[in-house]
Amino acid sequence: MNGTDFNIPNGITALRVILLPLFVYLIFQHSQANRIAAFVIFSLASLTDLVDGYLARRLNQETNLGKFLDPLADKFLVLGAFITFIFLSDQIPIWMVLCILARDIFITLLRHLSQYQGAVLRTSRLAKVKTAFQMFSIIIILMSFMVLNVKERALINLNYQDAILSGAGRWNVAFNNLTAFLQGEGGDLIFSLSSFLPYYLMLLTTFITLLSLARYLFTNYKIFTGPIPIIRPKKTSLKHP
Description:
Helix content is 74%, strand content 0%.
């Protein structure tokens, strides 16, 4: 780290990480005002992802630290939101979040492996689509927390809890709620949408995330044929005096 690393773009990136604990604290509060504040903070933190990159290019302040921190801050923000959803909504099963977490850990390891080999990890538009859809899903789910009161949220959770205990599963509950909504039997519009939309958004997000992982593996398969630390380390030539 040197003096050039302390600049405005990197400061904005660091702010994204700093805002995460405040977001988590507010979203867990049983107050509509706090959950609205959590939604605003997450939205602002998401916007900083666009601002720091733009300023880094505009001010010619792109640094290796910024390139390292920016994707890391994104992962903290996204995974932090998804993990809170596990505790706040019984619609969202833990395996979905674990799939998203595992994908990010694997890609991070793959990126380090490519650097070890001196290669370039090839990305695709699907990775950007994945990130955009994750953000979209989080925003919509946060909106459902923001507009529903605590009693309505508890009622939806109880519906899913009863189904899980009876062995019916979340899929059946979400499908039944969707069917009722399409048939005009769901009652209040916001409540009806919130009873199935978070589940399907997370399901689709998980599918796109795993599809993005498969695309990474297909595009960068040659990395696995190169030197791998411990398993197949780089060959070093011995120099004789």
